[in-house]
Hints:
The structure is a single chain. By secondary structure, this protein is of the alpha+beta class. The protein has two domains: 9-82, no CATH class; 96-122 and 162-332, no CATH class. The chain has 14 helices and four strands. Strands 1-2-3-4 form a four-stranded antiparallel β-sheet. The longest helix has 23 residues, at 343-365. The chain is globular, with a radius of gyration of 26 Å. The two termini are 18 Å apart.
Amino acid sequence: xxxxxxxxxxxxxxxxxxxxxxxxxxxxxxxxxxxxxxxxxxxxxxxxxxxxxxxxxxxxxxxxxxxxxxxxxxxxxxxxxxxxxxxxxxxxxxxxxxxxxxxxxxxxxxxxxxxxxxxxxxxxxxxxxxxxxxxxxxxxxxxxxxxxxxxxxxxxxxxxxxxxxxxxxxxxxxxxxxxxxxxxxxxxxxxxxxxxxxxxxxxxxxxxxxxxxxxxxxxxxxxxxxxxxxxxxxxxxxxxxxxxxxxxxxxxxxxxxxxxxxxxxxxxxxxxxxxxxxxxxxxxxxxxxxxxxxxxxxxxxxxxxxxxxxxxxxxxxxxxxxxxxxxxxxxxxxxxxxxxxxxxxxxxxxxxxxxxxxxxxxxxxxxxxxxxxx
Length: 374
């Protein structure tokens, strides 16, 4: 494509960057601290970490500050930084059954082993402005935290168990579709180009770092009839901390720390195998992403189910359509490249259009038009 340089070159670019900083700071308000963003905008940080494909809360908060809250730009910066890092180890497989639960619900069963744990959520709150936040002070924050501390029994926290999975109940009854273990390849979408049809590991990776709104758009389409599978049910949604371990060069498994994850298992109706085509089953769509991002995990589960029933007529059943068009960073980069100069290509198109119009009009008049000299 025929791009041309912007007049002024590096000086113009430096001026543009300076203006960006001016508009960010011109009100002369106190600078927002990285810790404030990380702790008080945790859901935004979680979203950027997911789309940036890097679990690094401080770096995500810095990217948010640098880009004035623009989630696309922040994820772009975080993913670019990620590309510069060395990979020293690959972790052991995470076991979400070890999760220290912050939130755990099931829409499929009212009573589940261990009980429903509502945890931190706005699902049951009124979507109304809270005027008190406009006058919030450090004193009011400390008073609130002190009141919460009085309600916490540290001895009971140490006794909180790890919870089994709700789908174990369905598995025990033989209601789940037998697993297809024919393709257990573990792809790495950050190092390998996608080739369709891609293994399930690749589609789950792509969705885990996809743009949440894009996933929601296609996930919603599955419920409105634009995909096989229809309306799924949240078998279990859990949010919590999961241990991360690596194996050192001597083969010893070392504990590194914990990451906060959201996991969702969506239950759908499914057809049996060809040998038992008339036997109805339930299938489980899976979603797992960084931080607390329940919308993404639910939509991942819905789309995981639909992608296992290929159908090019329905967007949500098409691997290529779903995985490419929910890739936020790439979509953002390509659509915004349209702001770059396209003078050469556009003028070439205009020349072709003018010639075509002249030939067409001349043909109506019975004349012959010589092609313009290049």
